[in-house]
């Protein structure tokens, strides 16, 4: 089965100089765990929800939140993103994705075209659907 059959589209992306406030809005309003980072429409990185939660104050959105805590949302995406992510193309086989997950400590694989523009994303959860 080709990846294009199981990848998630459309993608959600941010730019390197966007703040974590924008990332927060996306994660608060969506049901996924990864955001692709683009520059001039080309993939340059990935932010997982784990990356995000490590980078912000644990007091965000609590009664204990201070101005200093809120300032953690002013960090830029490029400060916390994973750079040079492992990618696949939409014509790769889904089992190629399983091999990539086995060989790398990652939880998503961006799917890109020949110019390195993101066209989709596949998570390890998506590969479970193949096996089931």
- The coarse overall form would be elongated
Order of helices and strands: EHEEHHEHEEH
Q: Find the CATH superfamily.
A: CBS-domain
Distance between the termini: 13 Å
Strand portion, in percent? 15-25%
How confident is the prediction overall: mean pLDDT? 91
Any idea what the CATH architecture is?
Roll
How many domains is the backbone divided into? 1
Q: State the total count of DSSP E strands.
A: 6
Record keyword descriptors for this entry.
132 residues; alpha+beta; CBS-domain; four-stranded mixed beta sheet; two-stranded antiparallel ribbon; 6 strands
Describe this structure in words.
By secondary structure, the protein is α+β, with helices and mostly antiparallel strands. It has a single domain, classed as CBS-domain, CATH 3.10.580. It has five helices and six strands. The protein has helices spanning 20-29, 49-55, 67-71, 94-103, 124-131, and strands at 13-15, 34-39, 42-48, 82-83, 108-112, 118-123. The strands form two sheets. The chain has a four-stranded mixed beta sheet with strand order 1-2-3-4. A two-stranded antiparallel sheet has the order 5-6. The protein starts with 12 loop residues before the first strand and ends with a helix. 27% of the residues are buried. The model has no long low-confidence stretch (mean pLDDT 91).
């Amino acid at each position: 089965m080709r990846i294009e059959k199981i990848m998630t589209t459309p993608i959600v992306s941010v730019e390197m100089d966007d703040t974590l406030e924008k990332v927060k809005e996306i994660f608060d309003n969506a049901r996924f765990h990864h955001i692709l980072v683009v520059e001039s429409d080309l993939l340059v990185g990935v932010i997982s929800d784990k990356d995000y939660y490590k980078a912000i104050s644990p007091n965000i959105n609590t009664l204990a939140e201070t101005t200093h805590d809120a300032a953690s949302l002013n960090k830029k995406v490029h400060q916390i993103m994973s750079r040079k992510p492992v990618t696949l193309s939409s014509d790769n086989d889904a089992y190629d994705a399983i091999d990539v997950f086995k060989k790398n400590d990652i939880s998503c694989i961006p799917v890109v075209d020949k110019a390195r523009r993101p066209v989709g994303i596949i998570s390890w959860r998506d590969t479970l659907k193949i096996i089931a």
